[in-house]
Every structure is written in structure tokens, then in C-alpha cells.
Amino acid sequence: MNIGTLSLPVDRFDSLLSLLEQGGPVVTLLLGLSIIAGGLVITKLVQFLRTGVGRYRCSSEALSLWLSGQRSEAEAMAASSDALMARTLLQLMRASQKSGWEERQLKEDIERVCAREILILRRFLKPLDMIAQTAPLIGLFGTVLGMIEAFQAMQGAGAAVDPSVLAGGIWVALLTTAVGLAVAIPVSAILGWLDARVEREQAEMESVVTAFFTGAPLGEPSSGQNAFVLARSGAAHAL
What we know:
Blueprint: H1 7-51, H2 57-67, H3 71-79, H4 84-96, H5 103-121, H6 125-157, H7 163-214, H8 227-238
Helix pairs in contact: 1-6, 1-7, 2-3, 2-4, 3-4, 4-5, 4-7, 5-7, 6-7
């Protein structure tokens, strides 16, 4: 093994230790917040991947089959996908064929289900938002403390002030603001992307549920037919 290949990680580790030593507890706190934010981002990405956020093809095809009267094929299509939208549509299909259910009750139930799923998707977004907002303030707080120390040292030195020492104290103080911004900027950008994905999922849920009850395909105006009534009448004929 070439010893030279180990120098880069060692240098980075030394640079990190030097950064923590110079920045003090404020930089240590910001580093801890960045680690927490990284863990939350990874958790959200895994959650979106497992729940199929953004996958709408299967639910769209299942809804088209359902509106055309092919209920068994539509249920099979929706059941074949583990995407959140497909699972929600499958639950709506099965509930609409239960005896004793009215359209109003079905709407209230599916609204409750959709609200719960969206709430789950929004989990951990608030902590990310708090980190994005507080990281610059924490960095600024560290800068203010560092500037106070630097000017106190300058006052104590009197006429024998060394400009290099003063400049060193100022740049160390500004270091905390730079670290705070370095934490906040990527967290804020990722948070905006995650929030946009959740909003799109919510809009897609509302669109699919509305199309299910109006009987109109996605992106087309309602034809005046009610898919819930059609499903119930079809089930009655089957009996």
C-alpha cells in the first residue's frame, strides 16, 4: 500500500480538528446539526423510495380501467404496485364496493386516509426547516462573540496593538458565520425539493380522488357520471 494515499484523509481529518478548535463550541454545534440534517435527508429519501413517491403510471392506468367498467382488472393493476398513489386508489376501489357505504362516507374516509399519508410524508420536514433557519443565526451568534473577544483583546493591548493578531481574531470570528451558511444553504435547497415532492403527491391524490368520484379521466372535464354510483350499480347487477 502506498503511504501517500493515506495522507489525503489524514490531512482532511487534521483540517476538521483545526476547524473545530478554531471555531470553538459554535462550530461543533453546527457540525452536529449538519450530521443530524444529513441523517434526516437520508431518512426522507429512503421513505420516498419505499413508498413510491412520484410513481403515478400504475394508478393512472388502474383508474382508467376502473372508469371504463373493468373493475377487477383495475384492482389487479392497483394491487400490483407498492406506490403510495396506487395503494390509496386500491383502498378507494374496495371501499366503494362495500355494502352500506354512502358516497359522503366514502369521501370522508378517503380524505382521512390521504391526510394521514401526507402527514407521514411531511414527517421530519419541520426539523430540517428549523436547522436551515437556525444555522445562520447560530453562526452569526458565534461571530458576534468572536468579535467581542477580539475587541476586548485590542482594548487590553492598548497602544501596542498587533494588527495581525486582531485580523486573526476577526477571521476566526467570521468562520462561524461561514460554517452556518455552509450548513443552511444545502439543507434549505434539499428541504425545498422534498416539500415540492410532497405537494405534488398531495395534488395527484386530489386529482385521482376527484376523477374517481366524477367519472372523468385525468385531465378531462367531468362527463357528469359518478364512478361511485356506477360501481355500486355494477355490484348490484352482479348480485
